[in-house]
Design brief:
With about 240 residues, the chain is an alpha/beta fold. Helix content is about 50%, strand content about 15%. The chain has a single domain, classed as Rossmann fold (3-Layer(aba) Sandwich), CATH 3.40.50.720. Strands 3-2-1-4-5-6-7 form a 7-stranded parallel β-sheet, with helices on both faces. It starts with a strand and ends in a 9-residue tail after the last strand. It binds NADPH dihydro-nicotinamide-adenine-dinucleotide phosphate. NADPH dihydro-nicotinamide-adenine-dinucleotide phosphate binds next to helix 1, strand 2 and helix 7.
């Protein structure tokens, strides 16, 4: 029977590419979103993948939402924690709201989304958890103390959870994309973006589909010995050792 995969923030950008790649590979996919109804409806109409609305930073909404997905599609075996936001500001001007909204969507979400599915994965002896972090969680970025801290947190989360669950057939890995051509990057001012691209040795932005292909591999049975790893996909912009 086809495995069930949940992709948070799966209706737009990198998440939409991941949802579609899993769907094409035969998974039963649920894509989540938080507020952009128009994008979610267009995504479902185009792909045939159901979209579910809840906030990944709200523990109760995650428990209820994930239970609904399991009821509709079956036990969740693949979880892609992809949803994330930025609220950029220099730290000396950053408000607590900018700090905490990023922590909530980018880091609390890992607890809220993973905690409800991990026990079932342990009982069934199979699971794939893939967390989408960022190059800026590896190297830090001016104007993104909040985001860099949250995304670095995702790396620690991955490594610890991988060790706890390795004996239970569950792998936990992290992908750190560089700059990928999505709405999030479209929000960067053009002059800044030109400077960013000039600093990418491959000479272009990455494509969401390039990240999706890596997720597809990490989700597969073939990748059972890869766990606790951090995969860099950034066109050689920054070379980190995990
Ligand atoms: P987008 O802004 O294009 O899409 C974000 C998605 O996440 C949307 O589906 C959005 O829902 C959803 N989302 C946001 N907040 C929440 C929330 N609180 N609860 C549920 N869903 C939520 O993002 P990208 O595709 O660019 O980025 C995807 C991930 O990749 C993020 O974690 C990002 O940090 C990371 N990343 C992106 C890079 C890039 O260059 N784009 C580089 C490195 C990492 P809705 O449509 O309803 O708003």
């Amino acid at each position: 029977m086809a495995r069930v995969a949940v992709v948070s923030g799966g209706t737009r950008g990198i998440g939409a590419a991941i949802s579609k790649a899993l769907h094409t590979a035969g998974y039963r996919v649920a894509a989540t979103y938080v507020g952009n109804e128009q994008a979610a409806s267009a995504f479902t109409a185009e792909s045939g993948i159901p979209a579910y609305r809840w906030d990944v930073g709200d523990p109760e909404a995650c428990s209820t939402g994930l239970a609904r997905v399991a009821e509709d599609l079956g036990p969740i075996e693949v979880l892609v924690n992809n949803a994330g936001i930025t609220r950029d500001s220099m730290f000396h001007r950053m408000t607590f709201d900018q700090w905490s909204s990023v922590m909530r969507a980018d880091l609390d979400s890992l607890f809220c989304m993973t905690r409800p599915v991990i026990e079932g994965m342990r009982t069934r002896g199979f699971g794939r958890i893939i967390n989408i972090s960022s190059i800026n969680g590896q190297k830090g970025q001016v104007g993104q103390v909040n985001y860099s801290a949250a995304k670095a947190g995702a790396i620690g989360f991955t490594k610890a959870l991988a060790q706890e669950n390795a004996p239970k057939g569950i792998t936990v890995n992290c992908i750190c994309p560089g700059y990928i051509d999505t709405d999030m990057v479209a929000a960067v001012p053009p002059e800044t973006l030109a400077k960013i691209v000039a600093g990418i040795p491959v000479g272009r932005l990455g494509k969401a589909e390039e990240v999706a292909e890596a997720v597809l591999y990490l989700a597969s049975e073939k990748a059972g010995f890869i766990t606790g790893s951090v995969l860099t996909i950034n066109g050689a912009q920054y070379l980190a050792n995990g």
